[in-house]
Structure formats: C-alpha cells, structure tokens
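Structure first, sequence second, as always.
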C-alpha cells in the first residue's frame, strides 16, 4: 500500500522555524509532483506549496511566499517544507500529497495523515 508519512511538526514560538518532511513508501512516487497543504480548525484545506517531479518548478500560496521553501530529494523519496518566520496564523495540520503539479486538492491523489504545527504568540 502506498503511503506518505509526514514528520517534523510541533510547537514553536512566533518567528521561529520548522522543517517538515514527507517520506513516500514507494519509488514510483518520484514521478509525481508533491504538494503541501494545511488545514486549520473550521477552515478548508489550503494550498501551501508544490514542487514538480524533477524539482525544477515550484509554486507557493500567497500567504507563505518568501517564508516557506519546498524541496525534494528523489534519491531519498522525500519532500521537505522549510518554514521560517512562523506566525500563529500558520497553526494547522500540514498534509503532504502526491499527484499533479497544481494548487488544488483535487489534483492530488495520495495524501498523508498530517502533522500538527502549532505556533505560539
């Protein structure tokens, strides 16, 4: 069974940094674009960042541009999300996804279970 497993979430103070990781269970996931989404309580799932299968193209949601960086290491079958200058508004469950290179939920067929990120003020 194909799996995406996120890690790296936790509690951080405003202004701090975290790096999320997402490991895929199968090598075939190298051929998929990868994305990060987040969902805060009572809100819809929001696009955060995406990276093409080769890593040559990236895209970011407006609220994280200039603060977050997505990258991938295909040799390790892992995608990362470096989050800097975090604010309480970034508090959410962060989900890793694999699929098409896009910014909408429907473009991703595979999802991880999510990792909680909490930013204290």
């Amino acid at each position: 069974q194909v799996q995406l497993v996120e890690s790296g979430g936790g509690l951080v103070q405003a202004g701090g940094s975290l790096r999320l990781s997402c490991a895929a269970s199968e090598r075939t996931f190298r051929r998929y674009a990868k994305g990060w989404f987040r969902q805060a309580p009572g809100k819809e799932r929001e696009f955060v960042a995406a990276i093409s299968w080769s890593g040559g193209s990236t895209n970011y949601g407006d609220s994280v541009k200039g603060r977050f960086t997505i990258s991938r290491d295909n040799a390790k079958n892992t995608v990362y999300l470096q989050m800097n200058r975090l604010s309480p508004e970034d508090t959410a469950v962060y989900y890793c996804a694999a699929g098409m290179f896009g910014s909408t939920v429907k473009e991703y067929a595979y999802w991880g279970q999510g990792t909680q990120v909490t930013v204290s003020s």
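Margin note: The radius of gyration is 13 Å.
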